[in-house]
Design goal:
Blueprint: H1 2-27, H2 34-40, H3 45-52, H4 55-80, H5 84-97, H6 102-116, H7 123-141, H8 150-170, H9 174-190
Protein backbone atom coordinates (compact mmCIF):
# COMPACT_ATOMS: atom_id res chain seq x y z
CA UNK A 1 0.00 0.00 0.00
CA UNK A 2 2.75 2.47 0.98
CA UNK A 3 4.75 1.53 -2.11
CA UNK A 4 1.81 2.22 -4.43
CA UNK A 5 1.27 5.58 -2.73
CA UNK A 6 4.92 6.50 -3.35
CA UNK A 7 4.61 5.42 -6.97
CA UNK A 8 1.47 7.54 -7.41
CA UNK A 9 3.20 10.54 -5.84
CA UNK A 10 6.16 10.15 -8.21
CA UNK A 11 3.82 9.75 -11.21
CA UNK A 12 2.02 12.94 -10.19
CA UNK A 13 5.32 14.76 -9.78
CA UNK A 14 6.45 13.72 -13.26
CA UNK A 15 3.06 14.69 -14.79
CA UNK A 16 3.29 18.14 -13.23
CA UNK A 17 6.87 18.66 -14.46
CA UNK A 18 5.91 17.61 -18.01
CA UNK A 19 2.84 19.86 -18.02
CA UNK A 20 4.82 22.78 -16.59
CA UNK A 21 7.58 22.30 -19.12
CA UNK A 22 5.01 22.60 -21.91
CA UNK A 23 3.18 25.55 -20.33
CA UNK A 24 6.35 27.49 -19.45
CA UNK A 25 7.74 26.95 -22.96
CA UNK A 26 4.53 28.11 -24.63
CA UNK A 27 3.47 30.95 -22.33
CA UNK A 28 6.43 31.77 -20.14
CA UNK A 29 6.58 31.48 -16.37
CA UNK A 30 4.49 34.52 -15.47
CA UNK A 31 1.66 33.81 -17.94
CA UNK A 32 1.35 30.08 -17.25
CA UNK A 33 -1.79 29.35 -15.24
CA UNK A 34 -1.35 26.84 -12.46
CA UNK A 35 -5.07 25.98 -12.56
CA UNK A 36 -4.87 25.17 -16.27
CA UNK A 37 -1.60 23.31 -15.82
CA UNK A 38 -2.86 21.06 -13.01
CA UNK A 39 -6.22 20.48 -14.72
CA UNK A 40 -4.44 19.42 -17.93
CA UNK A 41 -3.05 16.39 -16.08
CA UNK A 42 -6.11 15.73 -13.92
CA UNK A 43 -4.58 17.01 -10.69
CA UNK A 44 -5.31 19.81 -8.26
CA UNK A 45 -3.28 22.76 -7.04
CA UNK A 46 -2.88 20.78 -3.84
CA UNK A 47 -0.75 18.23 -5.70
CA UNK A 48 1.41 21.05 -7.05
CA UNK A 49 1.89 22.58 -3.59
CA UNK A 50 2.53 19.17 -2.02
CA UNK A 51 5.23 18.30 -4.54
CA UNK A 52 6.87 21.66 -5.22
CA UNK A 53 5.73 24.15 -2.59
CA UNK A 54 4.68 26.73 -5.16
CA UNK A 55 4.95 27.78 -8.80
CA UNK A 56 8.58 28.85 -8.27
CA UNK A 57 9.45 25.40 -6.89
CA UNK A 58 7.86 23.83 -9.96
CA UNK A 59 9.95 26.07 -12.21
CA UNK A 60 13.08 25.01 -10.31
CA UNK A 61 12.24 21.34 -10.98
CA UNK A 62 11.61 22.05 -14.68
CA UNK A 63 14.84 24.05 -15.02
CA UNK A 64 16.78 21.28 -13.28
CA UNK A 65 15.36 18.70 -15.68
CA UNK A 66 16.05 20.73 -18.83
CA UNK A 67 19.50 21.90 -17.73
CA UNK A 68 20.43 18.32 -16.80
CA UNK A 69 19.20 17.16 -20.22
CA UNK A 70 21.32 19.88 -21.84
CA UNK A 71 24.41 18.76 -19.93
CA UNK A 72 23.83 15.11 -20.88
CA UNK A 73 23.39 16.02 -24.57
CA UNK A 74 26.51 18.18 -24.50
CA UNK A 75 28.52 15.39 -22.84
CA UNK A 76 27.35 12.90 -25.48
CA UNK A 77 28.42 15.33 -28.22
CA UNK A 78 31.77 15.80 -26.47
CA UNK A 79 32.27 12.03 -26.31
CA UNK A 80 31.49 11.72 -30.02
CA UNK A 81 34.00 14.53 -30.59
CA UNK A 82 36.72 12.19 -29.41
CA UNK A 83 36.74 13.03 -25.71
CA UNK A 84 39.79 14.73 -24.26
CA UNK A 85 40.49 18.32 -25.23
CA UNK A 86 38.49 18.29 -28.47
CA UNK A 87 35.61 16.68 -26.63
CA UNK A 88 35.66 19.42 -24.02
CA UNK A 89 35.54 22.11 -26.71
CA UNK A 90 32.73 20.27 -28.52
CA UNK A 91 30.80 19.92 -25.27
CA UNK A 92 31.09 23.62 -24.48
CA UNK A 93 30.09 24.63 -28.00
CA UNK A 94 27.12 22.24 -27.91
CA UNK A 95 25.89 23.71 -24.63
CA UNK A 96 26.17 27.22 -26.09
CA UNK A 97 24.34 26.19 -29.29
CA UNK A 98 21.41 24.85 -27.26
CA UNK A 99 20.59 28.48 -26.48
CA UNK A 100 18.91 28.56 -29.91
CA UNK A 101 16.30 26.03 -28.74
CA UNK A 102 13.13 28.03 -27.90
CA UNK A 103 12.33 25.89 -24.83
CA UNK A 104 15.86 26.27 -23.46
CA UNK A 105 15.86 29.99 -24.23
CA UNK A 106 12.61 30.79 -22.52
CA UNK A 107 12.68 28.45 -19.51
CA UNK A 108 16.34 27.99 -18.61
CA UNK A 109 18.04 31.12 -19.90
CA UNK A 110 15.39 33.84 -19.55
CA UNK A 111 12.75 32.86 -16.97
CA UNK A 112 15.09 30.71 -14.87
CA UNK A 113 17.53 33.46 -13.87
CA UNK A 114 14.72 36.05 -13.56
CA UNK A 115 12.77 33.88 -11.10
CA UNK A 116 15.36 31.56 -9.52
CA UNK A 117 18.37 33.87 -9.42
CA UNK A 118 22.02 33.18 -10.21
CA UNK A 119 22.26 30.09 -12.46
CA UNK A 120 25.72 29.24 -11.10
CA UNK A 121 23.95 28.36 -7.82
CA UNK A 122 21.49 25.90 -9.40
CA UNK A 123 22.00 22.20 -8.53
CA UNK A 124 22.26 21.27 -12.23
CA UNK A 125 25.09 23.75 -12.71
CA UNK A 126 26.84 22.35 -9.65
CA UNK A 127 26.71 18.87 -11.17
CA UNK A 128 28.04 20.24 -14.47
CA UNK A 129 30.87 21.92 -12.60
CA UNK A 130 31.90 18.63 -10.97
CA UNK A 131 31.93 16.76 -14.29
CA UNK A 132 33.98 19.54 -15.90
CA UNK A 133 36.39 19.61 -12.95
CA UNK A 134 37.03 15.87 -13.36
CA UNK A 135 37.67 16.33 -17.08
CA UNK A 136 40.04 19.22 -16.35
CA UNK A 137 41.91 17.13 -13.77
CA UNK A 138 42.42 14.37 -16.36
CA UNK A 139 43.62 16.85 -18.98
CA UNK A 140 46.06 18.43 -16.52
CA UNK A 141 47.32 14.98 -15.54
CA UNK A 142 47.84 14.13 -19.23
CA UNK A 143 49.76 17.35 -19.75
CA UNK A 144 47.21 18.72 -22.21
CA UNK A 145 46.23 21.61 -19.96
CA UNK A 146 48.45 23.90 -17.91
CA UNK A 147 48.82 22.86 -14.28
CA UNK A 148 46.28 25.35 -12.92
CA UNK A 149 43.76 24.84 -10.14
CA UNK A 150 41.22 22.40 -11.64
CA UNK A 151 38.23 23.91 -9.86
CA UNK A 152 39.13 27.43 -10.97
CA UNK A 153 39.53 26.29 -14.58
CA UNK A 154 36.26 24.32 -14.47
CA UNK A 155 34.40 27.32 -13.01
CA UNK A 156 35.74 29.59 -15.73
CA UNK A 157 34.91 27.15 -18.53
CA UNK A 158 31.40 26.44 -17.21
CA UNK A 159 30.81 30.12 -16.56
CA UNK A 160 31.95 31.07 -20.04
CA UNK A 161 29.62 28.52 -21.68
CA UNK A 162 26.69 29.53 -19.48
CA UNK A 163 27.21 33.25 -20.03
CA UNK A 164 27.58 32.76 -23.77
CA UNK A 165 24.25 30.89 -23.77
CA UNK A 166 22.64 33.66 -21.68
CA UNK A 167 23.95 36.25 -24.15
CA UNK A 168 22.51 34.36 -27.11
CA UNK A 169 19.11 33.93 -25.43
CA UNK A 170 18.86 37.64 -24.58
CA UNK A 171 20.03 38.78 -28.01
CA UNK A 172 17.76 40.27 -30.65
CA UNK A 173 19.50 38.07 -33.23
CA UNK A 174 20.64 34.84 -31.54
CA UNK A 175 21.77 33.24 -34.83
CA UNK A 176 24.22 36.11 -35.41
CA UNK A 177 25.56 35.97 -31.86
CA UNK A 178 26.08 32.18 -31.80
CA UNK A 179 29.23 31.94 -33.98
CA UNK A 180 30.83 34.86 -32.13
CA UNK A 181 30.09 33.25 -28.78
CA UNK A 182 31.44 29.84 -29.80
CA UNK A 183 34.60 31.34 -31.33
CA UNK A 184 35.28 33.40 -28.20
CA UNK A 185 34.60 30.42 -25.92
CA UNK A 186 37.09 28.29 -27.85
CA UNK A 187 39.70 31.08 -27.80
CA UNK A 188 39.26 31.51 -24.05
CA UNK A 189 39.47 27.77 -23.43
CA UNK A 190 42.62 27.49 -25.57
CA UNK A 191 44.41 29.70 -23.05
CA UNK A 192 44.43 26.65 -20.76
CA UNK A 193 46.39 24.51 -23.22
CA UNK A 194 49.88 23.52 -22.09
CA UNK A 195 51.10 23.95 -25.68
CA UNK A 196 49.35 26.38 -28.04
CA UNK A 197 47.17 24.67 -30.65
Amino acid sequence: MARRRLETMEENRLKLIAAARKAFAEKGFSDASMDELTASVGLTRGALYHNFGDKRGLLAAVVDEIDSDMAARAQAIGARGGGGWQGMLAEGAAYIEMALDPEVQRIVLLDGPAVLGDPSQWPSQGRCLQVTKQAVERLIEEGVMKPVDAEAAARLLCGAALNAALWIAASDSPEDVLPKAVEAFQALASGFLAKPA
